[in-house]
Amino acid sequence: MTKLRTARFALGMTVVALPLALALLGPLFAGGPGPRAASFTLGAGHRLGTDFVGRDVWRQVLHSGRPVVLTALAATTLSYLVALPVGLLAALTRRRLLEELLMRPLDVLLAVPSLLLILLASTVFSPGPVGLALLVALVNVPDAARLVRAAAAEAAARPAVEALRMQGETWWRTAVGYVGRSMLRTLAADTGTRLTGVLYLVATAAFLGAGVAPDAADWAVMVDRNRIGLFVQPWAVVVPALLIVALTTGTNLLFDAALVDARPSDRGRGRGTRLLDPIRTTRSRAGSEARP
Q1: Would you state the torsion angle of the CA atoms of residues 28, 34, 38, 40, taken in this order, to the nearest 10 degrees?
Q2: d(Cα 267, Cα 196) in Å, to the nearest integer?
Q3: Which regions in the chain score pLDDT beneath 70?
Q4: Residue 13, domain extent
Q5: Per-residue confidence (pLDDT) for residue 278, from 0 to 100
Q6: Which helix (H) or strand (E) holds 102?
Q7: Is the dihedral of CA 257, 259, 265, 267 positive or negative?
Q8: What is the CATH number of the domain that holds 70?
Q9: Residues with Cβ within 8 Å of residue 27, at least 6 apart in sequence
């Protein structure tokens, strides 16, 4: 299992390294803007040709990675920062009213199409990159919270959780130490999928002019703005699209590699055994107390 994990981790790092390196270090090596040429041309000193307004595609690629990566990562992180405590509290609380107060407003928000909500907000104010990240995070909170609640409720229904309560364990230790760890694989799979959906929302919002300027340096914007010249100068579309695909695919592979041996059958019975098998601990205590 360790070899499989190492292979997956190496493959994930190989796939995700290029888009991350271009996003983080690209602007340092992009150089000056230079003169513009004719639209959608190849050669003439341009490694990947020119885009729809005659700018060098390679320079745009170097400049365009950081906004899309930071926006997607920030939106995904913010959505989970809200969804995790809400979903855990809704699943572990024994107060029906509190659960309804937590989940029903999210159900109302879930009924509104994500893109429509972003566009409506954009008509009221100009969100900018930070506002776009907040909006995308907001529309991802309802379904993320429902997924967390469903996974946590399944884990909370196990006899182990009741045993933890009988031992007098704190809510935090029960929620994070046992229930949270039981959801890791589900959350990891959802994170990779959610990051892909966030990139889709950011790209679509940029195409419709919500939160991103039409000529902004952004891989998603490059794909949308240069698609009209796909069969004339394909590199202006293919290169940024492949970088986005590599970013999402590599992220999924890294999450799979991080948790490939997280199943109980692969773990030793060392540290944390009392949390993983609280029923046995409770029975042992009960037996020792019953002896004279």
Answers
A1: -10
A2: 31
A3: 1, 171, 207, 211, 213-215, 259-292
A4: 2-290
A5: 46
A6: helix 96-110
A7: positive
A8: 1.10.3720.10
A9: 62, 63, 66
**Number of domains present in the structure of the chain:** 1
Choose among 141, 114, 140, 121: nearest CA to 210. Answer: 121
Summary count for the chain: helices (H), strands (E): 13, 0
For 28, residues 6+ apart whose C-beta sits below 8 A from its C-beta are none
Query: Contact, 75 vs 198, CB < 8 A?
Result: yes
Alpha-carbon radius of gyration of the chain: 24
DSSP per position, 177-202: IIIIHHTHHHHHHHHHHHHHHHHHHH
Q: Which residue has the tokens 């069969």?
A: 231
Residue 181 CB contacts under 8 Å (≥ 6 apart), including other chains: 275
Nearest CA to 141 among 118, 180, 110? 110
- Locate 48 and state its tokens: 């990947």
Model-wide pTM > 0.70: yes
Residue written as token pair 């399944």: 154
Can you tell me whether residue 245 is helix, strand or coil? helix
User: ∠33-201-258 over CA atoms, to 5°?
Assistant: 95
Strand partners, 46: 43
